[in-house]
Amino acid sequence: MKAIALTHYLPSDHPHCFIEASLPTPTPGPRDLLVKIGATSINPVDTKVRAPKDKVEASPRVLGWDAVGNVVAVGSEVTLFKAGDRVWYAGDISRPGSNSELQLVDERIVALAPASLSDVEAAALPLTAITAWEALFDRIGLQRDSKGHLLIIGGAGGVGSIAIQLARQLTGMEVIATASRPETRDWCLAMGAHRVVSHHNLQGDLAALGINQLDAIFCTNATEQHWSAMASLIRPFGHICTIAESNEPWDLGLLKAKSVTFSQEFMFTRSLFQTPDMIEQHRLLSEVSQLVDLGTVRTTLGQTLTALTPATLAQAHAEVEAGRMIGKLVIDMAEFA
């Protein structure tokens, strides 16, 4: 099968950042689906895995953790899907990714894709939807009758875009998003944010709105940059959740006096550790698919590249690394073979 892969970990502007490779067609394990990829999207995790390092792969490594495609074969113990099903998923960071013609994925982290979206539109959502769902509902513990102020830092990014929608549609929280440019402010409002504030003047903008404390904060980027403000703004017994790692230690002592809960979200935890509840990602992706088809949730597609090549994949990584993405960048793989 054809794939776009790497053997060396190089900057995105290096002419040999990615290579075209011909790899053996994989054979499904007992609970695996073999999927022909129709579209894939690029996430910050792709760029972090590819980041320059002194390591050389003995065989080409395929990245990519977001996909929509059609099942072409199933493993001996598969019960949820059959050949011909159109599915979506984020995959498993410990296995070869979706920058390839075919991919293996465990059925327990897969769901039927929304019928109302094209492959390109749908591919914008799986990884970010899982991340936002787990952060909001599993980590922070929001419910349909939850009330109060929820701040989403990084509202116009991929995760922020779907988190705004899920919180607005599935809880009673007032959703406040951060954005600093007119176009990102408009995007957050279009996603359903009740209010938008600048992350450059977080406390001042919130105070101007008459908001002096927050019930929950979901931070999708630059945790260390916002740590002091988050610690100051969160209410006693509130909850802060982040998906953004840091090179600097976080001063958890700032949360002690308020008995604040702090948690981290990594959507690959279930597949990476084969947790007993892996199938929860099948269930939540199925629910998101239904919400899309009901018109409750919309795609967060922001930009499309029309073919997967070494050059377009490197371009996509560079765009994500620039940190100015609105929504998600998706690569159309309809003609990839």
Descriptive account of the structure:
Helix content is 30%, strand content 28%. The strands form three sheets. Strands 3, 5, 6, 7, 8, 15 and 16 form a seven-stranded mixed β-sheet that branches. Helix 3 (126-139) crosses helix 4 (158-170) and helix 3 packs across helix 10 (280-293). The chain is α/β, with parallel strands linked by helices.
Reported for the largest beta sheet, the result is: 7 strands, mixed
Q: Round the mean pLDDT to the nearest integer and report it.
A: 97
Task: Spell the H/E element sequence.
Answer: EEEHEEEEEHHEHEHEHEHEHEHHEHE
Beta content comes to 25-35%
Number of helices: 11
Structural class: alpha/beta
Overall geometry: globular
Poorly predicted runs are none
| Helical residue percent band | 25-40%
> Radius of gyration over alpha carbons?
20 Å
Distance between the termini: 7 Å
Work out the number of β strands. Answer: 16
Summarize this entry quickly.
With 337 residues, the chain is an alpha/beta fold. The protein is built from eleven helices and 16 strands. The strands form three sheets. Strands 3, 5, 6, 7, 8, 15 and 16 form a seven-stranded mixed sheet that branches. A six-stranded parallel sheet has the order 11-10-9-12-13-14, sandwiched between helices. Strands 2-1-4 form a three-stranded antiparallel sheet, with no helix packed on it.
